[in-house]
Amino acid sequence: LHTKKLLFIMLLQRRWPSSYRTIESEPGLLVKLQGLAKAETEECKEKIDETLPENLKGKSDMILFLKRADPDFKNEAQVRPYLEYTGIVAEPPTKPPSKEEVVKTLRTNVEAFNVLREQSDVIIDLEGADLRGADLRGADLRRAYLRGADLEGADLEGAYLRRAYLEGADLEGADLRRANLEGADLRRANLEGADLRRANLEGADLKYIRGWKEVLDFTGTDISEVSGLSKEQINSAVQKGAKETP
Prior knowledge:
With 246 residues, the chain is mainly α.
């Protein structure tokens, strides 16, 4: 089985890279060493030491260790999982889901979407996505790219939107109770009629925000260190229950 020889080489390359480079530089030496390692006898060790280059003398145990670590595979189909398990080769990359697939998953199964986020910490591109009226309670949308997304009437209660990019997003009538919008970019977003009770807006960028005065409720909303709001807008929110912690 040729794969056995390949595995022997890969194990050597991974565990002792400098020794591997030395051995590889001599034509046919790898194959010869693998052949000698088949029998674990004192004579075998001596032959390996004799065969090794001068700067690797006395390292026959290294070669024999590799041989012992070489599982007895019945066929090549068993080799790949072993290589992945030992970290010799990485698992083949999976094709990332399309934007349409992400939107569909988000609309129909928030739990499955959150699992997707756990598997991949990359930025989710939802620019301009139509999520009107979607049930997004508890959705993990941290750092999601939601520029210009239509979230009118969406239920985002308890959603995790930390550092999400929501520039120009339509959040009219959205339920944002207890949503985490810490550090989110909400420039030019529309919050008319939104419910922001106990939402966390700490450090959010609210420059040119639309519908701020028409937000239904700010009770318990944290607007500490927000940027882009005028004194009048801050006072308006405080009058509706928002809090500014020093």
